[in-house]
């Protein structure tokens, strides 16, 4: 669930903030799961290959004291399972949760066709249908940007619940340096058009949501400008790694 590669028209963050505030509706009571993603997946939308940041996160942060085959990975907003496909091929135990039944069906079909083992569930990531302290790693690649700050915090609390003490979490929300901070719906320009609601995080938002229960190991801010397109396209997002505190 959630947008994958985000490309926006090139302009300053201030320009984007002003323009998008005027052009787009700020949602007051957004749905936890934006149904636009079920519409996209049921129409055939699919990602087939993993994001390089996910590959890096898994191999840098997997627990070295246990075998890969004994390491459990969760992805919230897993979509059609492209990131978990890579992990399963490497031998990890994988579980994916997504609000789209069509996405989950496509993930299950792909895994079955390649004789890969994985568990996929249709569910709400603010109420994960999973047991406590089961996973070593958890992944969010843009999906938590598809709900507001409140539901994002609930989802992060659920991820905390299902991670083992010392487990690590990859959190990758879109950046408030590229648009108005907070949740925006009905975006009308760039590749976000038609992507449903998107929540843009500041660094302070990230620190605040992780402050009490996590140790933040890394906060990276990424900005990508495509100089070959006219107008130039710009993308901005965070890659965060946090570790569940051992109480």
Describe this structure in words.
The protein has 247 residues and is α/β, with parallel strands linked by helices. It is 29% helix and 27% strand. The protein has seven helices and eleven strands. The strands form two sheets. Strands 1, 2, 3, 4, 5, 6, 10 and 11 form an eight-stranded mixed beta sheet that branches. Strands 7-9-8 form a three-stranded mixed beta sheet. Strand 2 (72-76), helix 4 and strand 3 form a beta-alpha-beta unit. The longest helix is centred in the middle third of the chain and has 14 residues, at 149-162. It is globular.
Our estimate of the beta-strand percent is 25-35%
- Provide the gyration radius in Å: 17 Å
Helical element count?
7
Low-pLDDT windows of residues: 1-28
Mean pLDDT: 86
The amount of helix comes to: 25-40%
Basic shape: globular
Tally of DSSP β-strands: 11
Structural class comes to alpha/beta
What about the largest sheet? Answer: 8 strands, mixed
* Order of H and E elements: EHHHEHEHEEHEEEEHEE
Kindly report how far apart the N and C termini lie.
32 Å
């Amino acid at each position: 669930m959630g947008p994958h590669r985000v490309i926006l028209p090139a302009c300053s963050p201030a320009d984007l903030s002003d323009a998008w505030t005027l052009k787009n509706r700020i949602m007051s009571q957004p749905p936890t799961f934006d149904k636009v993603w079920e519409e996209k997946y049921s129409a055939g939308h699919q990602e087939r290959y993993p994001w390089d940041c996910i590959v890096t996160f898994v191999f840098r942060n997997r627990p070295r004291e246990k075998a890969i085959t004994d390491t459990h990975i969760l992805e919230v907003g897993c979509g059609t399972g492209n990131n978990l496909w890579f992990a399963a091929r490497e031998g990890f135990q994988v579980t994916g949760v997504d609000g789209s039944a069509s996405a989950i069906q496509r993930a299950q079909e792909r895994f079955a066709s390649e004789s890969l083992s994985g568990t996929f569930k249709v569910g709400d990531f603010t109420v994960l249908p999973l047991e406590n302290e089961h996973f070593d790693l958890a992944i969010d690649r843009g999906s938590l940007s598809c709900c507001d700050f409140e539901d994002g915090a609930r989802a992060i609390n659920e991820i905390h619940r299902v991670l083992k003490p010392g487990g690590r979490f990859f959190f990758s929300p879109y950046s408030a340096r590229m648009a108005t901070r907070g949740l925006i719906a009905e975006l009308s320009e760039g590749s976000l058009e038609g992507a449903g609601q998107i929540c843009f995080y500041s660094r302070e938002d990230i620190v605040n949501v992780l402050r009490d229960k996590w140790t933040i190991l890394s906060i990276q801010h990424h900005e990508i400008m495509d100089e070959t397109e006219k107008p130039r396209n710009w993308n901005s997002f965070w890659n965060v790694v946090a570790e569940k505190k051992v109480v």
